[in-house]
Design brief:
The chain is α/β, with parallel strands linked by helices. The protein has two domains: about 170 residues, Alpha-Beta Complex (Quinone Oxidoreductase, Chain A, domain 1); about 140 residues, 3-Layer(aba) Sandwich (Rossmann fold), CATH 3.40.50.720. It is built from eleven helices and 15 strands. The protein is globular. The protein starts with about 30 loop residues before the first strand and ends with a strand. The relative contact order is 0.17. The structure holds nicotinamide-8-iodo-adenine-dinucleotide and zinc ion (ZN) (2 copies). The site of one zinc ion has 5 residues, from loops. Pfam families: ADH_N, ADH_zinc_N.
């Protein structure tokens, strides 16, 4: 079992708990599939959902989870391109209308009618979950379901974020929150895409993990502070000391969202991906203008990004540093996540 310290103070203990129980299996609609979820990654988004961190309410009661890897066990009569027994994944975008102008241009995460797994519809922290067939990830048969699960949100999201950053092979990208679930994947996608990853996170254990995953450098935000921090990131990022060409903000804290424009290279891009509760961005207008900075958001990925991200995994270009726990231990995983103690990703086995 996971080792959780029961003596922790009331301040660090999560104020809300999940419940683990038997629920009925849903029937797939005509355009849906039912997936026997074997493994599901635990994303910080699932904890945000439980804590009510964001301005949109969740379905209640809610089954969380959106990195579910499993096997198709039933399908609606309109589903022709997935067969029973196929490996498939349920991701954050459970479904979209496929008809609005965003869907028509493959910007389906922006669909006003998007269905979100583990948020507006039940997700993958259960053994059987439904999703719209059009949005189900096609997982290649040779992929291990536990190892591939985190690609379904963390992998897709950082791969898309790197593309949105505009960074080109040979350039430097700062990965902020590099020791976490998204960050661990970002280091590897960056490397596979020919970029130098400058990892930023806190503590020696995360530093070692980032180095093992192929980061070109590690800056520890707990020991490098103030002006030193800005100088250290710039120095780590490029031999000329002018800073990284792009920054991927994956941390679950507001402060790094204020710091990024201080060290990003002129004409560089700051890509916001992490979603800390109630956070705001700030940047000096003067610097943004005269250094021609770009500040943008990036939100999961579309179906094509999904298949590309999975293909990096299939080819062995990225691997997921993960630990496994039983679904019944989810609360303990959330507790570790809240304390920032998870290096890489936890994947829950839905049968335990
Ligand atoms: O589509 C999207 N935009 C999307 C998709 C998936 C997830 C956004 N997210 C969001 C999640 O909701 C969450 O807010 O990305 C964020 C990161 O998710 P995660 O990777 O699943 O979280 P994690 O594993 O807890 O990792 C967070 C890391 O940030 C570090 C922590 O040490 C941890 O390793 N961190 C913190 I907290 N403060 C930091 C700081 N000041 C920091 N790293 C660097 N500097
Ligand atoms: Zn996620
Ligand atoms: Zn739409």
């Amino acid at each position: 079992r996971l080792r959780i310290d029961d003596s922790r103070s009331i301040l660090t203990r999560l104020p809300i708990a999940v419940s683990y129980k038997k629920i009925p299996v849903q029937k797939p609609g005509p355009d849906e599939v039912l997936i026997n979820v074997k493994y599901s990654g635990v994303c910080h988004t699932d904890l945000h959902a439980m804590m009510g961190d964001w301005p949109i309410p969740t379905k209640m009661p809610l089954v969380g989870g959106h990195e579910g890897a499993g096997v198709v066990v039933a399908k609606g009569e309109l589903v022709t391109d997935l067969e029973l027994g196929d490996k498939a994944g349920i991701k954050w975008l459970n479904g979209s209308c496929l008809a609005c102008s965003f869907c028509m241009q493959a910007d389906e995460p922006l669909c006003p009618k998007a269905l979100l797994s583990g948020y507006t519809v039940d997700g993958t922290f259960q053994q059987y979950a439904v999703a719209k067939a059009a949005h189900v990830a096609r997982i290649p048969a040779e992929c291990d379901l536990a190892a591939v699960a985190p690609v379904l949100c963390a992998g897709i999201t950082v791969y898309k974020g790197l593309k949105e950053s505009g960074a080109r092979p040979g350039q430097h990208v700062a990965i902020v929150g590099a020791g976490g679930g998204l960050g661990s994947m970002a280091i590897q996608y960056a490397r596979a895409m020919g970029l130098h990853a400058v990892a930023i996170d806190g503590g020696a254990e995360k530093g070692e993990s980032c180095a093992a995953l192929g980061a070109a450098a590690y800056v520890d935000y707990t020991t490098s502070v103030g002006d030193d921090f800005v100088r250290d990131v710039r120095k780590a990022a490029a031999p000329d000391g002018l800073g990284p060409h792009a920054v991927l903000l994956l941390a679950v804290a507001e402060k790094p969202f204020h710091q990024a424009t201080q060290y990003v290279r002129s004409r560089g891009a700051v890509v916001c991906i992490g979603l800390p509760a109630g956070a705001h961005l700030s940047a000096p207008v003067f610097d943004t203008v005269v250094r021609m900075l770009t500040i943008k958001g990036s939100y999961v990925g579309n179906r094509q990004d999904t298949q590309e991200a999975l293909d990096f995994f299939r080819r062995g270009l990225v691997k997921v540093p993960f630990k496994t726990a039983g679904l019944s231990e989810l609360q303990d995983v959330y507790q570790l996540m809240r304390e920032g103690k998870i290096v890489g990703r936890y994947v829950v086995d839905t049968s335990k």
